[in-house]
Design a protein that fits this description.
38% of the residues lie in helices and 20% in strands. By secondary structure, the protein is an alpha/beta fold. Among the domains are: 1-86, Spore Coat Polysaccharide Biosynthesis Protein SpsA, Chain A, CATH 3.90.550.10; 229-327, no CATH class. The strands form three sheets. Strands 1, 2, 3, 4, 5, 6, 11, 12 and 13 form a nine-stranded mixed β-sheet that branches. Strands 7-8 form a two-stranded antiparallel ribbon. Helix 6 runs parallel beside helix 7 (229-246) and helix 8 packs antiparallel against helix 9 (276-291). The chain starts with a strand and ends in a 12-residue tail after the last helix. 48% of the residues are buried.
């Protein structure tokens, strides 16, 4: 299998200087590319001078994560794309278990490794942890991470497991699947576009796996911090986009009504925490969703929608009411 490791970059020269050496050292049998989103910090010149062996694809604009990869991957030939954040440190033999999983599981279309925290290396990292899931209302969570609660890596997820979504921080995807799905939805711009991509893949019969024998370390927050209001806006809005696109109409409508209530409660919680900008971000997310509803609804796939897409009824209830912070003891409500 021909593997292309593709790093999306926007004004991230410092990150490339820090993290690219580990990728080069531990990926000797793969092609490495940097897709640059019209950076202005000298990233491209740095790559040309310091790493002439790396392929460079220059996009004409910063179209965000979704459009950046969609545009950049068009000119890259490979059987498997590894979409890798520029703030990820890879480890020796990180590729071997992933490729073995693709070999042994023909139904695997998308695979992610274990995502650990670069700064607290014994803990899982927010973006992906040990594989992603959603609850019935579309709220995402992970093995190893429920909202802001991060588990310590004690080997409890050193397995190979089918999951619902794989993180965009380090996602392996078969190129023919990516193309058949028309890539990421560019209306997302950034955040949760990988959940939508995985959901669409599963709706047409593909599977997503987590491989715990492969580990990488993610710094996280290099573009937007976890609690940046812009990230709050994108996460809440894009989650509603995914529900609209990937569920049967009646169920999607019911969940959107419930989300209006629960997202409103989340906004009130931000007010009580004096995080007024986050409350306003949730309001803007809903306004943006309603303004774009017709367009998003028109993107609904002609596929057999998954009836059992969720792992628990409400992760919000489990975490904030029952105080569940560990995936393995998640309340099955």
């Amino acid at each position: 299998m021909k593997v292309a490791i593709v790093i999306l970059n926007w004004n991230g020269r410092a990150l490339l200087e820090r993290f690219l050496p580990s990728v080069i050292a531990h990926s000797v049998d793969s092609d490495i590319y940097v897709v640059d989103n019209a950076s202005s910090d000298g990233s491209v010149d740095f790559l040309k001078n310091q790493y002439p062996q790396i392929g460079i694809v220059c996009n004409t604009e910063n179209g965000g994560f979704a459009k950046g990869y969609n545009d950049g991957l068009q000119s890259i030939d490979a059987d498997i794309y590894c979409l890798l954040n520029s703030d990820v440190e890879v480890t020796p033999n990180w590729l071997g278990p992933i490729l073995e999983a693709f070999k042994n599981k023909p139904d695997a279309a998308i695979v992610q490794p274990k995502i650990l925290d670069l700064n607290r290396r014994e803990y899982f990292e927010y973006a992906g942890a040990a594989g992603g899931f959603i609850d019935m209302l579309g709220y995402p969570f992970c093995r190893g991470r429920i909202f802001q609660a991060l588990e310590k890596d004690l080997g409890q997820y050193n397995d190979i497991k089918e999951v619902f979504w794989a993180t965009g921080a380090c996602m392996f995807i078969k190129s023919d699947v990516f193309k058949a799905l028309n890539g990421f939805d560019e209306d997302y711009f950034a955040h949760q576009e990988e959940i939508d991509l995985c959901w669409r893949a599963k709706n047409v019969g593909h599977k997503v796996y987590y491989v715990g024998q492969s580990s990488v370390y993610h710094m996280g927050g290099s573009t937007l911090k976890n609690m940046d209001p812009k990230k709050t806006f994108l996460n809440f809005r894009n989650s509603l986009y995914s529900i609209t696109k990937n569920l049967p109409g009646k169920r999607a409508f019911t969940i959107i009504v419930l989300r209006l209530l629960l997202d409103g409660i989340a906004g009130l919680r931000f007010i009580f925490q004096f995080k007024f900008r986050h409350c306003f971000a949730i309001l803007r997310a809903h306004i943006s969703f309603y303004l774009n509803f017709r367009k998003i609804y028109g993107k609904r796939e002609k596929a057999n929608f998954l009836q059992k897409y969720y792992s628990t009824t409400s992760i919000v209830w489990s975490h904030f009411v029952h105080q569940v912070k560990n995936f393995n003891i998640l309340v099955k409500d």
